[in-house]
Amino acid sequence: MAMMLFVGSIVHGRPSLDTLHRRQACSIRHPWRSNPTCRAAQGDHPRKALIFDCDGVILESESLHLQAYNQAFDNFDVQYRWSVEEYDDLQNRVGGGKPKMHYYFGKHGYPKSLLGPAPVTQEHKNNLVDALQTRKTEVFQSYISSGQAEMRPGIERLMDEAISQKEALNLSLSICSASTKSSCLFVLNELVGQDRLSDFDVILAGDDVKNKKPSPDIYLKALDLLNERSSNALTPDSCIVIEDSLIGLQAAISAGMKCVITYTDSTKSQDFSGAVMVTENLGSDPQTGTSLQALLAFLNQ
Questions:
Q1: Active site residue: 55, 201, 207, 208, which one?
Q2: pTM exceeds cut of 0.90
Q3: Is 50 in contact with 177 (CB distance < 8 Å)?
Q4: How many CA atoms lie within 13 A of 260 on its CB side?
Q5: Which of the residues 18, 44, 53, 265 is marked catalytic?
Q6: What is the pLDDT of residues 106-121, one digit of tens each?
């Protein structure tokens, strides 16, 4: 039996934001069990998975993240303001918001803030970073709610194509984001929509693993969860990941998965050696854009 897992509770069979923990769906949709044609078609296709990163892949959001961090710093009277160049370096070096701040503060000094003097103990350092991350998330979500972000070209088309063919192609779908749960779920609900999300089998956020990208942990955990209730096991080389950054590529390759890069302005100068495909975007036009079949063909290489 397959498994649907969402980072959030299930309301009317769809993920919501009222609680931020994973909940397995009680009833799993298997239309192919009663559909001989679909069941036979699945038998012709080995099991495979398409896995999406979120920020930079599903949506172009890095400039909004930068603005939100600097707004949080200002709100807490923190002395730092990240430039575009500094943030690009952090984005391409460290996965996850809290690790970014710990890395930067560890290098340049933990600042004083409205919470008090510059923290010395690890507990107080964590308290500062947690407070800044919470405020940053609030600001970022306000940007998303006001319509300042859009899905990247070709993502909506590719998701719909994959959802329409997932049973026939024996295809599992997953999203693996380095963002916090609250930020990830908010973005996905606002932009991707609950109807599409209900067709994804596993959605994970940075909070769900100990080690952030470039560690392969999030992709390996997604693989384990996709295999949790299936006797037809997925292998890493039957999974293709869509990423936008070097640390995402490193995470996918370390997990033994194929990786397609859709670079952004902040990552376009990186060395993406090892990716099976590097492109600016997947293309919104179904006639000229990268198709689902073209992506899955990389699994045979």
A1: 55
A2: no
A3: no
A4: 23
A5: 53
A6: 999 999 999 999 999 9
